[in-house]
Amino acid sequence: MNQSTVRRCSRQIVLTLLPLTLAIGSALAAPASPSTAPKATGPATVDAALFKTMHWRGIGPYRGGRALAVTGVSGEPGLYYFGAVAGGVWKTIDSGATWTPIFDSMPMSSIGAIAVAPSNHNIIYVGSGEGALRGNITYGDGVYKSTDGGKTWANIGLKDSRQIGALIVDPTNPDIVLVAAIGHAFGANADRGVFRTTDGGKTWSKVLYKDENTGAIDVTFDPHDPHVVYAAMWQVRRQPWNFSSGGPGSATAA
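The structure corresponding to this sequence follows.
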């Protein structure tokens, strides 16, 4: 192949590449068509009409009695516990199709609060003694703990708190628990207010107290910071002929 032929071939290759290059460059520079341009997405919405077919239904157990304490377990959609005010603690592992009583061997049947440790689902704390101070309530004898998913239980203190309104467990440490104790429903006593343990119930500290007539009805963590705790205090007295609710001791604390 002589030099003139090589030069002609080179010119043909260059002329062929130039239009291709220009075509690719134009395609990259051109804005995307409406059909191919990515669309901005906002928060997902759910059609409210989808909820119209959903209805509440009773899932039992129909011999459990009134219930104030109930909890699910994050990550285990079929597992729930509830505490009846005179029927102990019940457990379901199939979303309520069947229920099993798991507290019948304990001396107390009145349950005011229940919580599963978020960091260890085998650890359950129960506050005995309901917090709805009706005229026919029964009392409890402190806090119970299970470390095997409710198979066995042990009383871990606060036996004279009598009525417990709420109980919470630290999100990352199952040994840190706070209890809102109402105290005696029918009289004054000192074991009321907010109590805290950092060793799984071996020892308790009274961290919020007003007076012998005022207890704590509720306690909760700030959802963004478990070091921030809110509690509600309730000055209350139940008598056979009267119910006194509220007073100087009732307040909210943080």
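The chain has one domain: 59-253.
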